[in-house]
Structures are given as C-alpha cells and as structure tokens.
Amino acid sequence: MLIPGGYEWLVLLLVVVLVFGTKKLRNVGGDLGSAVKNFKKSMQEGEAEGDKPAEPAARIKQDEESGRVFDAKSEQHAEKDKDKV
C-alpha cells in the first residue's frame, strides 16, 4: 500500500475543498474543536467526582423466616397502605 506524498496530499486537499467548500469545512472544524473541548471538560469533572467518597447504598432488610428481601422504599409504601385500610 502506498502512502501519499506531498503533491498527492495537495491534490486531495484541493478536491475536498472543491467538493465541500471552505465554509462547510470551517463549520466541521469548529464543531470538532468544540466536541474535543467538551470531552476534556467532562473528563475533568469525572475525575473530580471520582475523588469524592461514594454515597452509601440503601440498606436492605431481609426477612429471616421467608428469606425475602425488602428495600426501604417498598416498606414505606407498605406502611402507607396499612394506614389507609
């Protein structure tokens, strides 16, 4: 496989400019630049969040007799339903 040299790159660039136009290429370049900037920003935010300790997960309560597992949310709904009856 041949790698294009200097003149081949110039011809290729000329064809791309003729097909897409300079305005379209400028817009694509700007969009690509802003995408890279946003990606770097989100990576820095992710690293900052990684330094913080994780929040503890909700406690899980297990009924020993039946072996069923209940989470805190469903218990709250069950208590509300008992009050309504």
UniProtKB/TrEMBL annotation:
One of its GO terms (molecular function) is protein transmembrane transporter activity. InterPro entries: TatA/B/E, TatA/E. GO terms for cellular component: TAT protein transport complex. This is Sec-independent protein translocase protein TatA. The keyword Ribosomal protein does not apply. Belongs to the TatA/E family. The chain crosses the membrane at residues 6-22. Gene3D superfamilies: 1.20.5.3310.
